[in-house]
TrEMBL record:
Record protein name field: CheR methyltransferase, SAM binding domain
Organism ancestry: Bacteria, Pseudomonadati, Myxococcota, Myxococcia, Myxococcales
EC number: 2.1.1.80
SUPFAM superfamilies in the cross-refs: S-adenosyl-L-methionine-dependent methyltransferases
Stretches for region Disordered: 33-64
Length: 346
């Protein structure tokens, strides 16, 4: 398990130069490894059509603020239409972006400006003409919101019930390692939460056990931030206070995670649609990525592959607002209404 067991680029969090290597790869390799947000943009002069020229309503255009943001080449509606058209081609579902589209639309707007394109229609034409632009759009569509201890009730049930039961059973078999995977780990908030929970919440009760944690994400820029391990205080607000004080001892607005909480985590750059670590895992966190943004057929494919990477009785955690696709995937609920499932079919 871990870096050796999986295809993809591995970053050890304590190794800043490795993080830089991932970043450099993302800039030079192209394809899914490309991170256009870190690519210098060509600044074009605005070639906006006059207001209303697109024939669509004008939300967000025409007011004073809009004069300041005159260079914004897309209305919200144009962006929505672009996403509705493009998402299926990326095996994504537009509905997942509905509530969080602001972040994505802003990025696409910046991309249009960088390319000197006047509107969403011109961007569609660019996509049709240049297949490599789809990789750029794909990367622009990644929603990056995360925080420590997100969905606190899930971490509480893991800490008090589900993981102690798993550790008891490991111990009874003479095993000492809990293997876990955070899929779509953003800047490390989720895997580091698990690392802190394990060390401060579980190790004192189960001395001698260890956590081996793989964390994967498609986005090299986020993985570089994860490797750095420093966060605005707002990202820590749900973490139990005593743990936050232990894990982030430094002063300032952007404290850094203490080294002992980083050691358990191996970061991998992988696209969940095509790559996964081998496993098997006792615990997989796949929250606010596949079951929000992926198209239903892809959700089913990914779910089958996730389940195949769980040990018998292994746990799958999804996001608080997500549900699993219909069908028998060999899972049962493991924590009442909370989005935690256990593998049953083995
Ligand atoms: C909304 S964040 C969720 C982060 C964390 N799991 C949580 O719930 O707080 C979604 C993450 O999934 C990543 N992501 C999106 N598409 C992906 C893909 N195809 N493969 C791997 N990671 C992906 C994004 O880069 C982003 O970091």
């Amino acid at each position: 398990m871990g870096s050796g067991a999986a295809a993809g680029v591995c970053v050890q969090p304590a190794d800043a130069s490795a993080a830089e290597r991932v970043r450099a790869l993302s800039l030079f390799k192209g394809g899914f490894l490309r991170d256009p947000r870190t690519t210098p943009e060509r600044h074009a002069t605005s070639r906006l059509p006059p207001p209303g020229a697109s024939g669509l309503p004008l939300p967000g255009r025409g007011g004073r603020a809009d004069i300041q943001e005159e260079a914004d080449p897309m209305t919200d509606r144009e962006c929505v239409e672009l996403l509705q058209w493009a998402a299926p081609r990326l095996r994504l579902r537009w509905e997942g972006f509905r509530r969080v589209r602001g972040q994505v639309c802003k990025r696409i707007g910046r991309r249009l400006k960088a390319l000197g394109l006047p509107d969403a229609g011109a961007y569609r034409a660019r996509l049709e003409a240049e297949p490599s632009e789809w990789d750029v759009l794909d990367a622009l569509c990644r929603v990056t919101i995360s925080r420590f201890y997100r969905d606190a009730r899930v971490f509480e049930v893991l800490r008090h019930d589900l993981l102690p039961a798993r550790l008891e059973s490991l111990r009874s078999r003479g095993e000492a390692t809990l293997r876990a995977w955070s899929a779509g780990c953003a800047s490390g908030e989720e895997p580091y939460t698990l690392s802190v929970l394990f060390q401060l919440g579980l190790e004192p009760r189960f001395p001698g056990v260890r956590l081996a944690l793989v964390a994967s994400d498609a986005d090299a820029g986020l993985l570089a931030r994860a490797a750095r391990g420093c966060y605005p205080r707002g990202a820590l607000r749900e973490l139990p206070r005593a743990w936050a004080e232990r894990a982030f001892p430094g002063p300032g607005d952007e404290p850094c995670l203490a080294p002992e909480f980083r050691r358990a985590v191996d970061f991998l750059q992988q696209d969940l649609r095509s790559q996964m670590p081998d496993g098997p895992f006792h615990l997989v966190l796949c929250r606010n990525v596949a079951f929000t943004y992926f198209a239903p057929p892809l959700q089913r494919e990914v779910l089958s592959r996730l389940v195949a990477r769980l040990v018998p009785g292994g746990l799958l955690v999804i996001g608080g607002h997500e549900s699993l696709p219909e069908g028998d995937f060999g899972l049962t609920r493991a924590a009442g209404p909370l989005p935690v499932f256990a593998r049953t079919d083995v």
